[in-house]
Specification:
By secondary structure, the chain is mainly β. It has 3 helices and 21 strands. The protein has an 18-stranded antiparallel barrel. It has a two-stranded antiparallel ribbon with strand order 17-18. A hairpin with a 7-residue loop joins strand 4 and strand 5 (132-139). The longest helix has 13 residues, at 2-14.
Length: 439
């Protein structure tokens, strides 16, 4: 099937022979050190691009036990944009993701997806300023900070949807409506939409109705078949998530942001009721050269009161990008969590930015446990305490050259009473060093 994909991708290139409009807009695909030269020789309606990223990760205390893993992640993306008319665009992206030297066998699909079609859609309308834009096919969906819907760049494979998206603009109002299904990754074949799973929604943006602020209301509707209940063996999921994101600036260098969401519905014919919140306050010092910024934030999401009462109370973060939202160690998610964080960012030079943060974690509901990917990874019996632990972390981003970006970070989770009482007293270390090269 991978051979079939190579043939298919060559056919996409052949689309460049289609009739074209001399006034066609140049796609937004960023040029790299090679593609910039190549694109200067190509017609404006045809654009190529690509990126290669490698990342070394060294983990210690995996599962908060004496275990470790060191591996190398590699991700190659090749872009092709064809714009035969100013209002018509075809966009494609091939991806090859692999992992080397890991002690996990077989490698998980979250790290490995050999040569595949990651993006392939047609877009009608001007994406930047058109009053109506329609996009159909395999595409990424990302809204707000990505706490609920994102195509996480941190991931070695990313996340895409097969579906339709329509964007409407009128003055200060923008609304994105979409319908589709997430793509399931198959390491030995082409990715396909996840069976029996559907997602519909609308995401709005209202700019400057409140001075120096943006309001973003949204509604997501998730449907899935054959899910487990607490009392019911299996049934359907029908979940609605309604929320609001509000961010803005205040006088004297302060800025703020908040996001709150509520979930209601049915899971396996059992009631679902959950909520989550995020609040942050920042302060930027008057130093245009180094741009120092201090911040403090609080995150909370509900857990399940009783795993056998037939009522689901654990918040479902849907399809998020969780990296660095709950510490750089990425051990926790927006479910049954109380998370306090403070830190600072400092621009050392034009090319180097450093950041440091301190995190502390608690169980929002002591009778529930720690979650990952929608499942409980460390269960609680309700008597083991609720303080999960603390995590200091440091990270940096260095623009080594014009087309080369270096990322690095280190985080360490010190186990709190809950982890120690559940037999997980080993601290967790995470170090990574990544180099991304556009070409």
């Amino acid at each position: 099937m991978k051979t079939d994909f190579r043939i298919l991708f060559c056919l996409f290139v052949a689309l460049g022979l289609a009739p074209r409009d001399a006034a066609a807009q140049s796609p937004a695909t960023p040029d790299g050190i090679v593609s910039r030269r190549a694109n200067s020789e190509l017609p404006r309606w045809l654009r190529l691009g690509g990126e290669e990223r490698v990342r070394l990760e060294e983990l210690g205390g995996v599962g908060f036990k004496p275990a470790g893993n060191t591996y190398l992640l590699q991700r190659l993306r090749l872009n092709l944009d064809v714009t035969p008319r100013s209002w018509l665009k075809f966009s494609f992206q091939a991806q090859d993701s692999r992992v080397f030297f890991t002690n996990v066998s077989p490698a998980p699909s979250s790290q490995k997806d050999p040569l595949d079609l990651r993006l392939g859609y047609v877009q009608v309308g001007n994406a930047e300023a058109g009053p109506v834009v329609l996009r159909a096919g395999r595409q990424s969906l990302a809204f707000g900070e990505g706490r609920l819907m994102a195509d996480p760049n941190w991931s070695n494979v990313g996340r895409t949807f097969d579906g339709v998206r329509a964007t409407f603009r009128y003055r200060k109002l923008r609304v994105d409506a979409f319908s589709g299904a997430t793509d399931k990754i198959y390491t030995g074949g082409l990715d396909t939409p996840t069976p029996a799973e559907h997602l519909h929604g609308a995401y709005g943006s209202i700019d400057k109705v409140i001075p120096n602020a943006t309001l973003e209301p949204y509604l997501f509707w998730r449907l899935e078949h054959n899910v487990k209940g607490e009392m019911t063996k299996a049934g359907n999921l029908d979940s609605k998530t309604a929320g609001l994101r509000w961010l803005g600036k205040l006088p004297l260098g302060f800025d703020y942001g908040l996001e709150v969401a509520a979930q209601r519905g049915r899971q396996a014919n059992e009631p679902l009721s959950a909520w989550a919140g995020h609040w942050i306050l920042g302060y930027s010092l008057a130093d245009p050269q180094h741009r120092p910024r201090l911040f403090a934030e609080l995150n909370r999401a509900s857990g399940d009161q009783n795993p056998r009462d037939g009522v689901h109370g654990a918040f479902d973060p849907l399809f998020p990008s969780s990296h660095d939202k709950f510490g750089t160690a990425d051990q926790f998610t927006w479910t049954n969590i109380m998370h306090a964080r403070s830190g600072m960012q400092y621009k050392v030079s034009q090319s180097l930015t450093l950041a440091a943060a301190y995190n502390s974690f608690w169980l929002a509901n002591q009778r529930d446990g720690i979650y990952s990917s929608g499942k409980v990874t460390i269960a609680s019996n309700g008597t083991q305490g609720n303080h999960i632990g603390q995590e200091p972390d440091v990270q940096g981003q260095w623009s080594l050259f014009r087309y080369t970006l270096v990322d690095f970070a280190f985080g360490h989770v010190f186990p709190g009473e809950f982890l120690r009482h559940t037999g997980r007293s080993t601290g967790y270390n995470c170090f990574f060093l990544a180099v991304a090269q556009r070409f």
